[in-house]
Structure formats: C-alpha cells, structure tokens
Amino acid sequence: MNTQAQDAIAPDWHVRARALRPLGRALIGGELRPAASGATFKNLSPIDGRVLADVAACEAADVDAAVAAARASFERGDWAGQAPAARKRVLLRFADAVAAAAEELALLETLDVGKPIRDSLNVDVPGTVTCLRWYAEAIDKLYDEVAPTGSGTLALVTREPMGVIGAIVPWNFPMLMAAWKIGPILAAGNSLVLKPSEKSPLSAIRLGQLALEAGVPPGVFNVVPGFGSTAGAALASHLDVDAIAFTGSTATGRSVMRAAAESNLKRVSLECGGKSPNIIMADYPDLPRAARAAAAAIFFNQGEMCSAGSRLLVQESIREPILEEIARIGRSMAPGDPLDAATVLGAIVDETQTRRVLDFIDSGSREGARLALGGARVRVDSGGCYIEPTIFDAVDPGMRIAREEIFGPVLATMSFRDPEQALRLANDVAYGLAAAIWTCDLKLAHRAARALRAGVVYVNCYDADDITVPFGGFKQSGFGRDKSLHAFDKYTELKTTWIDLS
Questions:
Q1: What tens digit of pLDDT does each residue of 393-404 get?
Q2: What pLDDT score does 314 carry?
Q3: What are the helix and strand counts (H, E) for the chain?
Q4: Could you point out which of 11, 410, 430, 443 has its C-alpha 20 to 30 Å from the C-alpha of 95?
Q5: HSE-up (13 A, CA, CB side) for residue 444
Q6: Which residues pair with 223 in a beta bridge?
C-alpha cells in the first residue's frame, strides 16, 4: 500500500478522542459501580488539560467489597478450581479481546498519560497482548515435582495459587504494567484486586471489562480506582489479601511494605525506582549507534521509565562526539501533539510531575552542572504538560540529578578515565534496576555484567526486552521479578505432601 493510501485510512485520533466516553466506575464482583461514598475525582488529560472522566474515588469500603468478592470467588473455586486448560482458553480469549480493542485502548492510554499514540498503538497494546497470551500458554506447561526421598515415602511438591492478590500499578505504562501482574496472577488461579494509579485509571477499568467478556468469572478480576493514600493503603493493609505486587516509587514501596508487615504479614513484591547507568567505552566502534541508543534510553516515553538510562557515563576521550550526537537527536525530538501519529515525544503525565521535573532541572543548574540542551517547559499554550529533551554535562556524582530518580526527559552526563572508575560510579547510587555497557572487550563485558549491581544488564544495547526474561531490581529498586516463569514464584505457594508407603 502506498503512503497516500495509508494516510487516507489512518485514524483521525482527534475525532475519535472527542467521541470517546471513558468509564470511570469501579469493577467489583463483576459489576461496574460508583464508590460507596459516591465521591469522584476528575481525570485530566496532560495533552491539553481536558476532563476525560469523573472517576470513582474508591476508599476502604470499596476495597473491602472488592476483596470480599475476590475471596468468595476463590473459595468457591470459580477460577482456581478450573482445569489449567480451561483457564488457558479463557485467558487466550482475553488476549484476543485486547487485540481487537487495540485502537480504543491505545487512545485511552494516550489521552490518560500523554504518551504518543504511535507508542500506545505499537508498544503498549501489543506488549499487553503478548504478555497475556504468553502466560495463558504457560498455564499447562508447569509441572509439579516428586522429591527424591527413600523408597518408603512419596513426597510431592505442588505449586498452588495463593488466593487473593492485590496489585498496585503505576502510571507510566498503565496497561502494560498491569498486564505483567494480571497474566501470572490469573494464570496461577488467583483472584485479583487491581488498583491503578489515580493518574491513569482508564485502561485498567476497560481491561477488567474485557476480561469479564472473555469469560473470567465475576469477582476474579476487580478494579478499584482511587488514590494511593486511601485505596492503595487499604489494599496494602487488608487482612484478607494474601500478597501485594507493587510497581512504583521507592518511597511508596516502603509504605506498602510497612503496611503489609503491620497487617497480616502478606507477601510483598516491589519493583521500584531506578537511576540506571549507561556506560560507553572508547573501544566501542559504532559511537553513533551507542549515542542513538543512549538518547532513546532517556527520551523514550518522555523519560518516564523506571529503567531509563538517566546517567550517561562516557569515557573521557569520546565525551564530546557522544554528547554532540545525543544533543542533535534531542533537538529533533521536540514535544508534539500526542494524538499526531508523527509525534515521538509527548506530554508529562500531569502538572505535579511537570513541576517535579522542572525542579530537578533547576537544581542541576544551581549545583553547577552545565545545561547542554533544553531545560524548558514548552507548548504552554496547549494547556498541557510538555518539557523538551534536556541534557546536563559535567555532572558531579553528588548532585541531586545524579542520585535521585527524576522520571522525565533529563540526562545527567559524567565522564570517566578507566573501567574501574566507571563501575564505581555506576554502582554509587541507592538503586539497582538496570545498567548497560558498550564495549568490544569480551572480558570487560563479562566482568562488568557481574560487577554491576542491577537486575538487568545490557551489553551493547539498551532496553532490550522479551516476555521470557525476568525483570526486577537490586538494592532500593525492589525485589521479586515480573515477566518470565519466575513471576509465578510471587503468586504461588509451594506445598510439600508426605505419603508414608511403608
């Protein structure tokens, strides 16, 4: 098909956005309902400040109702009691329903968080579908064990669903991060209470509807929109929730962990913040490629990524050409209208996060870093939240922009003399989610991969991804792993059954 024909049939996303009527109610026990209190909050789009929906402001009473529905469905065996092959068929139908609703879900995601429609359509929705299908297919591939005991006993090791799982998910990839929880939680036979971020509740509610339509029994998949301090806190401290899976900031992760410990000692898994180092060695032969990857690592998704390569460590002899190339790329990525299919850099999620990012930019300048690119709020007349790609050079490792997670399109650049100094700088933060090194020295690549204290280490690439590999962090980036078969460890219990054969 030629370009003109493609343009002729391309969706007019502005027209579709005006026609869209997002649902803002909670999904509890298979029914869409308002919050028990009747309270709502306005869900605003960072694209232009428009009100997308009045969303149910769920609180403790709503969480109680959702947990009760989840517990009842679990105890009845509505889902957990189904054969693995039956759950597999339902989850595959769920994935197909998400794929069929791709354009609607992509539009919800873009309106809600401001990411470019091209990313919502080509990254977020396909990633969600892949995740759900993969865990559906994994259900009947997991085998239990027979322990190698003596001939007088039979010892069985079985993996069983935990029961009711609470999942609290972030706003940067609302649908995809939810899928990373939903897939293994439901595949394992659990019932779920999902609490989306108050900044991005819309796709979670729609996913819950699609799950019901696909045949997930009522009460198995519940959605409680609301604020972290109310709905989130109630879920984390609930006495009848067996586990909490959380993705978000390290500060909120601490609160979730405290609430879990002080309630019923429920299992907790945390995927928290990051301040990931991206190391470029002078021996890497394709510096433009490394620079392109470094730019994508910090500017993709407006820098709102826990694994963003926000610290660029460059060997002194190549610092200038690398920085010049990243700046050139940054200048070509001016923020645009997220509903324009050509836009590659969209809006920051809301006004609060915009002010936070700008405060970090101000602190970098005050502390003496050199502003090499950007640093300003743009598209102010749109009524939305936009910050241009920003690069700081000559960053001292002790500066705020070098140590704290910014969650915006802001790159902190430092130089180093040798690999030993690079690895020291890389590990000298509280976080340990991702890291990368670019080198043609095979020994150095292996040594660095072992030395870097991060859950994911990229060699000669950045942000490579596949559902088959685990994702999670070291240190204050949390613990537990999303994706891959390892995710089942978070949502199942191992039971040993001894049988005396004597």
A1: 999 999 999 999
A2: 98
A3: 18, 24
A4: 11
A5: 18
A6: 27, 194
Distance separating alpha carbons of residues 361 and 409, to the nearest angstrom: 10
Task: Give the three-state DSSP class for 59.
Answer: coil
Instruction: Dig out the tokens for 13 from the structure.
Output: 């996303």
pTM score of the predicted model:
0.96
Cα-Cα-Cα-Cα dihedral sign, residues 298, 374, 111, 404: positive
- Return all residues near 113 (Cβ < 8 A) that are at least 6 apart: 46, 171, 172, 174, 199, 200, 304, 347, 349
**Which H, E and C letters describe 224-278, residue by residue?**
CCCCHHHHHHHHHCCCCCCEEEEECCHHHHHHHHHHHHHCCCCEEEEECCCCCEE
Q: Are strands 386-387 and 377-378 parallel, antiparallel or unpaired?
A: antiparallel
pLDDT of residue 10: 73
The whole-angstrom separation of Cα 392 and Cα 413 is 6
Judging by DSSP bridges, how do beta strands 456-459 and 434-438 pair with one another?
Answer: parallel
Q: Which of 59, 306, 388, 405 is catalytic?
A: 306
Q: What is the pLDDT of residues 231-262, one digit of tens each?
A: 999 999 999 999 999 999 999 999 999 999 99
Q: What is the 3-state secondary structure (H, E, C) of 264-324?
A: CCCEEEEECCCCCEEEECCCCCCHHHHHHHHHHHHHHHHHCCCCCCCEEEEEHHHHHHHHH
CB atoms within 10 A of CB 360: 20
Structure token pair of residue 158 = 């079985």
Residue 427, both tokens: 């590990």
Is 316 considered catalytic here? no
Interval 263-296: pLDDT, tens? 999 999 999 999 999 999 999 999 999 999 999 9
User: Catalytic residue at 271?
Assistant: yes
The 10s digit of each residue's pLDDT in 287-304 is 999 999 999 999 999 999
Crossing angle (nearest 10°) for helices 442-451 and 419-427: 20
Query: What is the predicted pLDDT for the residue at 11?
Result: 87
